[in-house]
Backbone:
DNA sequence: GTAGGTGGGTCTGAAATCTGGACCCACCAT
DNA sequence: ATGGTGGGTCCAGATTTCAGACCCACCTAC
């Protein structure tokens, strides 16, 4: 007889994209991060500006603090009040946030254009472009190649 | 008496980030897109390589097709079989995928380094960097400023 | 021909999560 | 004492997720 039941056809890829999404791959988490980038560090403000349920926001913030993206700092005792700051890791999510925004600006802007404009210190409207660190050329999908490492 | 109940304290920001996340802001959606970027265009393959429940993957693929990110093309009738291709809009998600990967590579790589390497056509390992389209300078979080448009 | 495999799903029921709304508590100002 | 702010928690119901089984049309090997 000896019919072997392997069944393990699933082999999820080990992948930095998947790992990152485990941490910030949820709407409210990323919108919370957006708010902190925009300078809104407080719970109520984040709830108002994102539209997230208070409960969900509380949970997300805890998770973001737990994974080292935000830091919760008291700005008053009596009564105890807190603000959320980006850690270095958090600040490094800026490219993610910007590329998301960039895509939305291009494909989902209403008839009256992108709702939020961001200005670079050079004085121009910030249009984010991805370049190869090595050669400085803009990166296009067709010009890259995945290399199996293991 | 006449106590007015406004209650409308919530004013979710109109924002391209939020809009984009409505469309691709979910783990399996983005992982499906990743697979297509890696050249895996078929349902079963995507299920295997992402680990998503078949059901969920089917739902996500329908949504992605619906929002114009993927295109479902038959590659065989009798039996009917389909492949998913990126549209132009889908290809433009490459920067999003790359910046997510980049962040994960930096902050979530195990002791044996990033699990997947991507090579640029220039021959070097692709490290994606965000630059300002106008001045070409790398974009850092502190050097930008949101401008209210309305 | 029949057993098994592939491709692209759907169905099912239990478990987890999300959601809006109410509630809470400490403090401050009027 | 009344009301507002800030930062939450609690609840119950709705929605999603998930794993696993199932399905159907086809193909190939035996």
Residues:
């Amino acid at each position: 007889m000896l019919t072997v039941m392997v069944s393990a056809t699933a082999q999820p890829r080990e992948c930095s994209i998947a790992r990152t999404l485990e941490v910030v791959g949820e709407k409210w988490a990323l919108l919370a991060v957006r708010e902190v980038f925009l300078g809104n560090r407080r719970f109520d403000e984040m709830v108002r500006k994102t539209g997230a349920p208070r409960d969900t926001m509380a949970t997300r913030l805890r998770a973001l603090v737990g994974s080292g993206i935000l830091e919760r700092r008291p700005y008053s005792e009596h009564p105890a009040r807190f603000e959320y700051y980006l850690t270095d890791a958090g600040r490094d999510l800026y490219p993610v946030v910007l590329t998301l925004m960039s895509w939305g600006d291009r494909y989902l802007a209403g008839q009256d254009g992108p709702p939020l404009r961001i200005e670079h210190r050079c004085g121009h409207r910030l249009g984010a472009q991805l370049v190869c660190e090595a050669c400085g050329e803009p990166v296009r999908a067709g010009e890259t190649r995945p290399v199996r490492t293991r």
